[in-house]
Amino acid sequence: MADWHAPQDPFDIPDVPDYVPRRLKPYLFIFFVLIIQFSGGVYLAAASDMVGTTALMQEDILMAGYASLIGLAINFAVMFRIKFRFSARTQLLVSCMVLIAANVICACTTSVPLLVITCFIAGWFRMQATFACNSTIQLWLTPVRDMAIFFCYVYIIVDSVIQLSGIATIYTAFFSQWEYMHWTMTGLLALMMIVVMILVKPVRGPMFIPLLGIDWIGALLWAGFMMCFTFICVYGNYFDWWDAAEIRGAALIALACLAINLWRATFLHHPYISFRAMKNRNVIRATGIYLVFFTLIATEHVFEHSYAANILGFDETNLIDLNWYVFAGIIAGCGFTYFTFALRKWRYKTMTAIAFTLAIIYLAYFYFFIDYGVEKEMLFIPLFFRGAAAVIISIVFLTSIVQSGLPFQVFPQALTINGFTGAVMGATLGPAIIGELLRHTMAKNAALLGANISNTNPDIAFAPLGQLYGMVQTQALVVSMKEIYGWLLIIALASLTAILLSYSSVRPFAIFPKWSTVRRVIKHMVRTNKEYRDPHIERTTLM
Asked: How many whole angstroms separate alpha carbon 482 and alpha carbon 368?
């Protein structure tokens, strides 16, 4: 916020009237964040119910859900500009109206393009509203602006809501219909609008900064590239990859968008994402770690549901109850990172090694104990460690982006890259690779098991064809999953060895600049952009 958000005792928020107790003001914005985070367009946990009641496919719903993440990632580059153009009250009210419309559309439409576009827009405004709230209470969370502490709060909210929204969605569908989750969130968003209109004043900073110099064409091109990348990963198996014209067309469009953006970045004064952000060492390192780490734990999207539903026979409520185990891991991971990384300043290398160790425990547990008779309670250990590992790696490398030495005008661009590689690519590329590997491994193992059954047990060979096929496919699934878990475990051990052999003494010292400094930098960006467009313009103060 503005200069009046300098640390004081007690902390105060001028956007909220004085008749609201000071101690309650930050919790009001946390309440807003929780409602906003629960409102994300489609709910992937209800995908099976949506497939059963609409003409949509599983891939259509996944594409819409990931479009929300793309909208969220694209917003990072301009969220500071929007913050200094509009008051927090305006941002929250507009975001609520957009999210209400998105919930209504997602509950009613069966048009895939409309669903994807709606979720993309919803993701954009969800990110902006979340930032408006979190930036308001940042100094309450960490008066010294230590971003390691701040990101522990951010991820305990965001990742926890992902698990809790899945639980709420499934139980809502179980007791009524999946659409009721959208109507519930519509009501909560309407309640939030009423509270905002009553308790949040339209306070604007002393300096008005217009939305000039933003490369909106670049934003659309980057969004197009991310959409095409996600389309390939989600629909690749359905369309049989490169044999389909749809996949080849998406790849050509993605390459065209990327090439045009890179070309425009060579001469634009303020491109949406500059080469300086793309070539930053910490950004490149984070991208590499994300690709390896989230591919290792991508089995959560490919294996866990199939294993629990088809092998263990869990119904939807038992399946979603597993989210509580992941939720516990997220809470523990955020708490551990807060006390070690944020407060005691443990090294990046140490925290990365711990996260990979937890991922190794997750993979090793499934490799050694996967079987037909596993009880639900036995899954607590691997899911707990997976949740903790994912949140640790996310907090650590997002903090490294802040500590990358980038000037503030480039820093939000690095956040966009981090959002795409960590959220979008982490959720789509790894599952696409593991899913294709599972398909080929299952075909190989099914052929071997089918031949062995016919040759070694004549009684089974004369069993009904449907029963025989089901036995072969079930056994092939278990064997294939164990085989892939083994390969991933080897890769994880090799990655951990490489991390331990590397040397790094860097510790987190990422301190966010004052909001007055941020505003001054943005003002300078707008002024220099106007001078760049028109060199004859007089130097005037933007008021």
From this structure: 8
